[in-house]
Amino acid sequence: MYKKKKSDINGLDESSMMGISLGMSLHNVFEGLSIGVGYAISVKLGLVVSLALILHKIPEGITYASSIFAITQNRRKTAINLFIQGLFIWLGAGLSILLSYFTEINEKFMAIPIAMTAGIFIYLGGTSFLPVANKITNRTIPISFVCGIIVFFIFRSISELLG
C-alpha cells in the first residue's frame, strides 16, 4: 500500500505543495496584471501599485517559502519554487502589455484586473487572516493591524498630496 510522505506541519505532503503553488501562481498572475495595468493607465498609478505589491510580497514570500520548505525540507526546491512564482508575476505583467497592444487602453477595461486583485486581497484578509489573528491572544496582533491601517492612510495622504 502506498503511504503519503508527510511533512512536520499539519500532515501536509507534496500534493499539498502543488495546491499551494498553483494557488500562488494564479494569485501572482493577477498581481502582475495589476502592475502592468497600473502602468498602462499612468506611471504614478503603476508606481503606487508596485510599491503596494512590494510591501505585500515580503510577508507573502516568507509565508510561501516557509510552507514549501516545511513540506520539502529542501532549500534548493524551495528556491526553485520561489523563482517560478516570480515568473508568474512577469507572466501577468506581460499579459497586460499584450492586452494593451490589442485593445485601446480603456480605464474601465483595465480596472477589471485591479478590482479582481483587490477583491482577492479583501476576501483572504476577511476570511483567512483576521480570524486566525483574532485567535492569538498576543497584544501585538491587534496593534499591528491598527498600524497597517495607519500606514495605509499615510500612503493615501501622500498620494493625494502628490496629485
Walk me through what this model shows.
The chain is 84% helix and 0% strand. The protein is mostly helical and 163 residues long. The relative contact order is 0.12.
Break the fold down into its secondary structure elements and pairings.
Elements: H1 14-41, H2 43-72, H3 75-102, H4 107-135, H5 140-161
In short:
The protein has 163 residues and is mainly α. The chain is built from 5 helices and no strands. It has helices at 14-41, 43-72, 75-102, 107-135, 140-161.
Into which percentage range does the β-strand content fall? under 5%
Largest sheet: none
- The helix/strand order is HHHHH
Extended strand count: 0
- Uncertain parts: none
Specify the overall morphology: globular
Compute the average pLDDT. Answer: 80
Specify Rg, calculated over alpha carbons.
Answer: 18 Å
- Counting H and I runs of at least 4 residues, what is the number of helices? 5
Which short descriptors sum up this protein?
single chain, 163 residues, mainly alpha, 5 helices, 0% strand, globular
